[in-house]
């Protein structure tokens, strides 16, 4: 192990990239970590390849390294999402969420409307960790996604966001889609707190008003008929 550490300390990007193809998991993990620490743009391509490694610990190490490199890795991460995706997608999306810059947010917002459900699903999870108004609006929209798995991921993400999502969820109570309204109400009840509870009660009252108006109108008609008959 000591010899490996010496090798990693003295290795350049090219040598470290070659170590990512080693048969030993620990060597690949340490090589990925070392590449991330270089902060070098030349490390991005080999680290992206490592996102598809058979070992999930290596994939995690590569994603963490790409997040450490930061802004320069964003275009390549997004290209990976829109191209290969697959098991690489969750790690690419996690890296984008960890970077958390406006450019990373833009990439996540594009991913959450991807044609591929697994990318939308992973993007929803990453947006929940990132938070902010733009992420919340995108997640509320995803409550109406055509895939149940994506809808569930969006709901869990909004629940994790908590109180900051109350305003957007309250607006969703007036969605033309019944499923979206139902999920928004459920999430508000789960998030709880005075603000969420007030929004749910207000919406329930608004839903009852047309029924009360009709009932009152029917009562007036009935009273008129009775008075007419008595007269």
Rounded radius of gyration (Å): 26 Å
Number of strands: 0
- Proportion in β-strands: under 5%
Order of helices and strands: HHHHHHHHHHHHHH
Helix content: over 70%
Count of separate DSSP helical elements: 14
Global structural class: mainly alpha
Quaternary state of this entry equals single chain
Q: Roughly how many Å apart are the termini?
A: 105 Å
Task: Return the average pLDDT rounded to an integer.
Answer: 82
Tertiary shape:
elongated
Describe the fold and architecture.
The chain is mainly alpha-helical and 231 residues long. It is 77% helix and 0% strand. It has 14 helices and no strands. The protein has helices spanning 2-10, 13-19, 25-38, 44-50, 56-69, 74-82, 89-99, 102-111, 117-130, 133-142, 148-161, 166-172, 178-191, 194-230. Helix 2 packs antiparallel against helix 3 (25-38) and helix 9 (117-130) packs antiparallel against helix 10 (133-142). The longest helix is centred in the C-terminal third of the chain and has 37 residues, at 194-230. The radius of gyration is 26 Å and the shape is elongated. The mean pLDDT is 82.
């Amino acid at each position: 192990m000591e010899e490996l550490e010496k090798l990693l300390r003295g290795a350049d990007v090219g040598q470290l990239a070659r170590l990512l193809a080693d048969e030993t998991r620990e060597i690949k993990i340490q090589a990925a970590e070392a590449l991330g620490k270089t902060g070098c743009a030349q490390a991005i391509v080999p680290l992206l390849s490592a996102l598809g490694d058979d070992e999930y610990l290596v994939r995690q190490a590569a994603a963490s390294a790409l997040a450490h490199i930061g802004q320069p890795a964003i275009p390549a991460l997004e290209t990976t999402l829109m191209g290969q995706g697959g098991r690489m997608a969750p790690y690419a999306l996690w890296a984008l969420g960890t970077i958390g810059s406006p450019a990373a947010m833009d990439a996540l917002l594009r991913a959450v409307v991807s044609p591929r459900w697994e990318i939308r699903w992973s993007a929803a999870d990453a947006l929940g960790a990132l938070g902010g108004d733009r992420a919340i609006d995108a997640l509320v929209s995803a409550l109406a996604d055509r895939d149940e798995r994506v809808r569930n991921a969006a709901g869990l993400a909004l629940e994790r966001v908590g109180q900051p999502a109350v305003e957007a969820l309250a607006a969703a109570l007036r969605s033309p889609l019944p499923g979206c309204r139902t999920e928004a109400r459920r999430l508000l009840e789960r998030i709880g707190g005075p603000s969420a509870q007030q929004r749910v009660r207000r919406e329930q009252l608004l839903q009852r008003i047309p029924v009360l108006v009709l009932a009152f109108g029917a009562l007036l008609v009935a009273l008129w008929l009775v008075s007419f008959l008595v007269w």
